[in-house]
Amino acid sequence: MSVPPAGPGPSSIPGEGFGTQPPPPPPPQPQQVPQVQQEPEPAQPQQVNTANTALQDGVNRCPKCGSTDIQLRVSTGMLVCLFCRHEWSEAKIEPMVSGEVPLWDLTGTTVASGASDISPEVSGVMTLKCSGCGSEVVVNTAEAMSSRCHWCRHVLTINEQIPNGAVPDAVLPFSITRDQALANIKQFAGKRQVFAHKAFRSGFTPENVVGVYLPYLVIDANASAEVWGQGEIETARYTRKVGDHEETYYNADVYQVQRHVDYTVDDLTIESSAERANMNAFVNTNNIINTILPFDTENAVQWNANYLVGYTSERRDQDVSQVEPVLEDQLLSIARAQVENSMRAYDRGVRWEAEHLDVHGSRWVAMYLPVWLYSFYQPNNNGGMVHYIAVNGRTGETMGSVPVAQARLITFALAIGVVVEALVLVMILGVLL
Ligand SMILES: [Zn+2]
Ligand SMILES: [Zn+2]
User: In angstroms, what is the span from residue 51 Cα to ligand 1's centroid?
Assistant: First the structure.
């Protein structure tokens, strides 16, 4: 992301001495000129077609030998034919979507075809005619993006972008192997072993880890933001005797502060599954997924269902319009962080009272991101809670929640207390001797 220097602009208006007087009102907003004509229709988003035209739904063969047994080879990040060991990969998605336009020139809303609106009436269950033997093979895209024909053993894959959210524009393949993920999970749990619930310790089977592709919208944006508020600079500090004690008083100058920032954001990552976004902390601890961000989304490649063979996936159920408010929230907090540096002079702090965001342009790409998940179900009176340990499938970053045994925590705290008391006793004895 690049941002022009904000600097203490000419917009700081000095106050007049003691800071208790009412602050000046916020600056006037641009006046709306009353108009009789109808509001213009909102501009339709531009679309970039990312469909992988080299692939169809059904049998897709190895370009070398014609086999359909293809999967991701994690160590190279390439697709490998299990029959002839030929390796290849799909093209990176980024140049396909961004083209030649620099982020600063991005205008309007551009939505890649894999991120287009989901039609609720489109079924996620697809029936494919196997071109190997002619029989019909059913793929439930909620669970898998490929299936093996029972009759001729060919693997059939879903590659065309059906409007049910199951086929994104791009996929970021796993580059952390299952063994590495397993080691990270064991280490994470090992450090917390002392406090962990007995059931967790006895039932700990990290071998149950599963590789999941989770749906995200990856967004580039070109925006401007404006914030208004009041900053205070201390000018004096003194104490006054009130009754039998002293109270500290401050004098401060109050300034009306305004900042404008133009900025671009590259590859902001926002989840596009409602279930995951509205996570209920009492039922599960899905929010840990956000703590293992970021992903190197610039390395995502064009869709090929073979990248998912052996992994599970969760389909996107949110449209761009539903995620837009989340994007705006994140853009505003980025703007506030950007102006922070120019606020140092206000040693008593700045209170923001109004803000305004203009998104000049945004570009949306639907992407599957790789996560290794170990889950542990903890039954309790309220129906139970699922705990997770998650490993970023690209960086190995690991985070999770482990059910805690309250009794063990208390015992541990008591043990520390006893040691401290013992030390004090030894020290007192030392003094006496
Ligand atoms: Zn082959
Ligand atoms: Zn067949």
Answer: 23
